[in-house]
Amino acid sequence: MTAIKMPTTPRSAYDPQRPANALLLTHVRELEKALSEAGRRVRRKKPKTEAQVAAYVRHLNRALHQQVLLPPMKRRPLDVPLDGVSPTPAGVKSRHASRKRAAAAPPRRKRASSSRKRKRGRR
Amino acid sequence: MPPTGLDNLRHLVVLMMENRSFDHMFGGLKPAHPGIEIWPNGYTNPDTQGNEIPPQPKAEYQGQLDPDPNHDFAPVNEQIFNGGPTPDMRGFIQSYFKQRNDVKSSHRIMYYFTPDQLPVLSNLALKYVVFNRWFASIPGPTLCNRAIAHYGTSFGHVGMEMKYFGHPIKSIYERLRAAGRATKLYYFDRASSTLELINLLQDQPQIFATYEQFLADCRAGTLPDYAFVEPNYSDHDGLVASDQHPDHHVAEGERFIGSIYMAIKSNPALWPNTALLIVYDEHGGIFDHVPPPSPEGKDGDFEAPPDKTGTGQPFKFDRLGVRVPAILVSPWVAKGRVVNDVYEHASIPATATEWLLPGFGGARTDRERKARTFLHLLSEPMMRTDGPNFV
Question: Contact A24/B234, CB-based, under 8 Å?
Fold first, then answer.
């Protein structure tokens, strides 16, 4: 039998900045509620675009799975940035770690570290 | 006597897409498939300037239905009744006009696709079984309709409520798991997720899997007895949404449908004993000419109050939603068959329950008990080998 060609999807079809539709926003709202009722606070800006919703849903989904599968564990509030890269728990840990490192490090190393930070800030 | 398709059946897969009506997707198929029921001559919808607008073959994959046509309960009521006492299916343009106040763009709600635009859906319709009268279960949005596909009821909801905890009526997944049957709900990925996660994760975390796992299960021949597949609901991580929800690109949905079909068909050990139902959750505010009938059975004692319907009237779940595309795929169904009986999403748990849990005594709505089932359509005495392949 001859194979039938499926239509191609043009690159222009991809628009992660498209405003999220009502279905996606409802999904977010209900996932947030479920997570909050499971004892985990959620704090973040409301997502507006499809990419933001997707990034957020990924986190909510994972958190909800963890909450259900590992319910006795205590966890921090879920704090998700709009670009989808979670600073929690990694971000929190790194802040703590850098403070400890700063206390233990010799002055020269500390200066080098802040200079790197300033450089990053200018970019 | 050779075994029939039903004797061979081991897996039932349901793929539920988003927000497209029957006439919109199948409107161009009539010349190739005379049994398909599209609008009669003279069917039109009036616009706000009094012009009568007929269906037109001008649908495009993307860009025409933005904003997303309203399909909450009250607007759907308007689409069906057009302000009158009888359901004449002439209110689609008027309803869409309210969203942009633009006469020209309101006409787009009457556009339909031609078969060459939808090679996957059209060829599956031509080669397998088309349901001429599969209706959304509720004249409302996604979630209440999807709930009926999972539970046989929406628990009194006509909107976007998602939680159904504490009811004696269990989802088809819970019923099957309790009976030792294998079942999975495959969602696209974690960023797309599934709309049923909240209800079922607590007790049934093992039922969830992703699209990648579906493909792997097809390759390995390890599909569960009953599988429900959800498309990708959003553009993310370089992936285009495949749910066909306006204004997502319809071609990507075609590709997704094609991939599900080919994943099953490509495994010669799986294809003979798997049935695939492709159906849409609701019409998404897009035109269709068939007035929705009543469901066969009563939906418990549920009644949606006026503040939930938005019409000023309660709703007793005594009318179905707008007609949607539905195709049953199996090498055991008759080529090009059309079914004219009334089906709705309660037919999905009804079918899975009848087939996998015969004599099931658990709680179910009268609606689900009386909903028509569809596996008797696997009636060909010999397995067909003429199914299309998609690349």
Answer: yes
| Inter-chain CB proximity A7 and B117 less than 8 Å | yes
Chain B, nearest residue to A5 by Cα: B391
Element (H, E) at B13: strand B11-17
**A13, A20, A65: residue with CB nearest B62:** A13
Min distance B43 CA to chain A CA atoms (Å): 30
**Cβ-nearest to A21 among B245, B258, B390:** B245
Q: Does the beta-carbon distance from A23 to B141 stay under 8 Å?
A: yes
Amino acid at B352: A
DSSP line for B249-298: -HHHHHHHHHHHHHHHHT-TTTGGGEEEEEEES--TT----SPP---SS-
Helix, strand, or coil (residue B327): strand
Q: What is the 3-state secondary structure (H, E, C) of B377-390?
A: HCCCCCCCCCCCEE
- Which residues of chain A have a CB within 8 Å of the CB of B191? 54-55, 57-58, 61
B128-160 tens-digit pLDDT? 999 999 999 999 999 999 999 999 999 999 998
Partners of B387 on chain A (C-beta within 8 Å) are 1
Distance between CA atoms of residues B30 and B203, nearest Å: 46
pTM (predicted TM-score): 0.90
**CB-CB under 8 Å, B193 with A31:** yes
Which secondary-structure segment (H or E) carries B211?
Answer: helix B211-220
Distance set, CA B125 to CA A1, A25, B27, B34, B336 (Å):
17, 33, 12, 12, 7
Q: What is the pLDDT of residues B45-94, one digit of tens each?
A: 999 999 999 999 999 999 999 999 999 999 999 999 999 999 999 999 99
Structural domains for chain B: 5-39+114-377 (3.40.720.10)
Asked whether the ipTM of the predicted complex exceeds the cut of 0.85, the reply is yes
Q: Mutating which of A5, A30, A49 best tests the B interface, going by the most B Cβ atoms within 10 A? A: A30
At B22, phi and psi to the nearest 5?
-60, -55
Integer angstrom CA distances of residue B343 from B90, B148, B225, B320: 22, 12, 22, 10
Asked if residue B311 lies in contact with residue B77, where contact means CB atoms within 8 angstroms, the answer is yes
Residue carrying structure tokens 């709202």: A29
